[in-house]
Batch of 4 targets.
Target 1
Amino acid sequence: MNSIPVTALGLAEHGLPVLPLLADKRPFGLCRACEGLACGGRPNMATPGPCACPWPCHGWAAATTDPTVLASPQWTAAWRRARTIGYHPGGAGVTVVDLDNPTAVAWAHTNLPHTTTVSTTRGEHWIYRGAVRSVNAVRTGIDIKSSMSYARWLGPGTGTLAELPDVVRALAERKSAPVWPTPRAMTVPAPTEGGDCRHRSPAFLERGIAMAEQRITEAASAVHATVYRTFLAVLSAHGRCDCLTEAHMTRLFIAAQAKGESPRHCEVAWSNAATALGM
């Protein structure tokens, strides 16, 4: 009997949101449309591509503790093919400091309080109580995995779980400054009948941006898909001239980040929407 689903169910019962991973550590697409990430999604995200699933079905956002979901036909098929277990650290209220080489491990021993430690193939995972933004490459060979990310389950480790130290929070914040998309230079046909571009009407453009902000703010679920589709709608209506400014984009990014999106996820969603429209 495959022990992976049994272990995963046990972890979920203890409050650890889990998901099945392939041998190369990538997560599964857990619906037919996303099988093999055919939807355009990236493995460590929920729905950055034009994914039309009614619920997150791959990446960290699919991680769950719900036994009904874990035993569903889609998940059962995935567990049979899984080679390891992933989990969402932020969903469990913890942060994994992923130390990818001996130099990084040595830095941790000097600069971080001792905590629960798990050996990896190349280094160690140091796990702390408390969630923070997930950021890669905060130092050479060191990633922070917590909110909006997943890590491999490599066992319970050794040592007592410590509180997330300020030094880790500082590393995450320093690397997490908002990144706004650069306005694109686009060439569009001249306005018909010699009139001005209708987007230059303050009321028209303001109404469109305000409606987009409201749509994101009011999203009760599928936030990632809502953000992507809202960005797609804004770019479709307002993105083919120079009237959509960085200030407008910033408003949309702020609304998305208030719902839990990271700056990087916002940037990827915006880029994917622009690409889908041929911009």
Target 2
Amino acid sequence: MKTLSNRTRTLLAAFAIAAGTTGVATSAQATPSLSPTACGNWQVETVAHGLEQLENLEPDGVGGFYLSGDSKVYHVDSAGQVRTVLDDMRAPGGLQLDGSSLFFLTRQDGKLWHLDTATGQLTSPTSFEGNGLLRLPDGDLLTTWVGTEGGPSRGLSRYFHESGEVTKNWSMVPRSEGLALSPDHLAVYTDDLFTGQILRVPLDSPNEWTVVGRLPGLLPGPDDLTVSQDGMLYVTAHIEGAVYRVDPKTGATCVVASGLSGGWTGPSSVRIGPNGDDWALYVTAFDGTLRRLVPPVGVDLSPVGG
């Protein structure tokens, strides 16, 4: 019930902010928006269903994924078989895998956890409040704070892995949901649930962020996002129930898939993962389903570093 209550407050706040940011909405009308068919015909497949509300996912490197639910961390293998890795956790959020080390956040108690997936050993190294999670090339971690979780933090915070110290408000973006590393490793992308804006944050000057695009519509509700090696962003629109492709160079958008269960049950996170000898998008949703979005011929979904 606590999760639903927070999401209710989030939506009400989002409508209030959207209604009060006429200038933002007006300027965003000039953002290029391609036709609904510009992304081509993507095939939507169900990989797993009937799980808890799914918040995030992380590829395991061998064709499967780790998923975070209301209180569980799941593993789904390449054949779609699901097992519960951890239970009775306090609202797991963002996940990041480094070798056999799975890092994840719990949103209700503001903890950063480390699970050794080879031994099953679980430790909680530090307090680190947030939702989304991204491991940088130097090993540091970033988290997002959309502004509805309570507490004083906002924007992006950074965990320095060598010292164990946390810098809150490392980047003072107004609000933030998802996180993705740019192909050149010089910046991260995040998004604003309330305004629909997509932001680029330089790693060497994190407060000089810029708006590179915006999802169309009054309140699409962008959540998590990922980026392919060619620089295209793929963004979940939680409230609308869609996944968009966004070109950060031009701001142009098109719909990859729609009708993926909207409102409170819409898509929450997206990652690139293997699909046979090629690549596909994998999308979690609050309806407890993991879906695979298979691109049309000619779409290069090679992941960053892949």
Target 3
Amino acid sequence: MQFTPALRSEALKVLTLRSLCGTLLAVFAATTAFSALAGVSDTSDPDFDPLFTALSGVMPGQIAAIAFGAVVVSSEYQGNGVRISLTAVPRRGRWFAAKLAVVAVPTLVVGLLTAFAALVAARAGLGGAADGLTAGEQVRGVVGCGLYFTLMALLAAGLTTLFRSGVATLSTLIPFILIVSFVIGDVAGGATDFLPDRAGQVVLHQRYDGSLGPWTGLAVTALWAAAAVLAGAWRLRRRDV
């Protein structure tokens, strides 16, 4: 099977699974709702960052993006459906590329729309506190947020292929982000700035310190996602039959 039919087949799987469409809806709903709530928060803090406040809904939204990437792949391992898929598309690299495409493209589209809606909703609450944001910073935040969601979904997809389990991926990534990175990272600093979530979220800040900038931070997250995808491709080629 050529790549285009394989891509169409994988896209149909996503469209016909309500749980996957619901997960993408959760990305939009959680991010926009939490950003809107953040927009009415106290802006007198000297460390107040209007761009990050407006896009702070990315914190719960990324959980849904990770779940989407994990479930798209893990659905293949329910009832050993991956055998059927690989029988239809014997070129495993081609099948895996199609699978990654149907993770990346919907996440990017939804992520961009979500970031824009979150920014508009939060700015309505922030009022004059957000007047210092330039057009360039807002565009960078929206585009960066969409890319960040996409990279986190691909990271989850790669790990799910490696582990052959969505539960294992979610049990690893979610505690890592909520506990290791969020809690310990604030205390330890240094090397923790290069963790996939902390590095990628630099693009959401108007002001940023440290060795990583907005795009270099996203590049670090992209390296994490690429490593997970390569590890998953190795497992797919070597182990799945």
Target 4
Amino acid sequence: MTQPTTIRRVPGPQRQPAEPLRTALTLAAAAVPVLPLQAGKMPFGNCHQCAHNACGGRPNMKTPGPCHCSGVCHAWAAATTDPTVIASPPWAAAWRRAVCVGYHPGGAGVTVVDLDDADAIDWARETLPATRTVPTTRGEHWIYRGTMASRNAVRPGVDIKSAMAYARHLGPGTGTMTALPDAVRALAVKKPSPARPVPYAVAVPAGAGNGECPHRTPAYLARGIAMAEQRIAAASSAVHATVYRTFLAVLSRHGRCGCLSNAHIARLFTAAQAKGETLRHCTDAWTNARTTLGL
């Protein structure tokens, strides 16, 4: 009787993660928060549970809401370095549809100066210190060590991507990464309207101290303003709320004694605008804080 033929299966090579998942895992291991991007360099949209801000997130996927969505539907705010999350459902399905890898520069501790054309590159070479450079389809990414507020169109062909933004990963680049210069930070500070050179005119009660704290020393006010600027600058999320709470704290201490000058208020507004707040947002937050305190 013929013995049945036994077919022995030879183990094949272990299946490796495909691009761009492999790139994402490599970046995550280097502490770079990643996210998958669709065609057109766009992040994946909200899932049905988070659509139309049903989860409580802010518009345009700026921040995740109080939901605990495990997907990739909050753009830069969903970026992660957790390899288990990156390689597991529902992220795994997104990577199969992704065409490239995005990352959150602010989460990685860097700022990307996105130069879109030859004129922008020439300007950067004449104006900015050299740093790590990555070629793009139309121009270059100049990457600096340090974070700041993101802002598009700071000048023709130049965008800044850092906090609350994402950038496309295009390779390691060349050159040594240098510290974020003040010249780049200054680009994101929105200039006050010429028609409104003073952000907000503070009504100082007559005879209230001529700019000095009657209940504390002037150094106390100076220290308080500096701490307020630092608190706003350190905000990595919920910037609107942080600005309002900071304004409220300053006014609760110094709003009635007459020590606040327009120069002090301008410093607070400048700090808020450096985080991406508009002049209108600053003015509204200041007005709301005064109203809350009955000033």
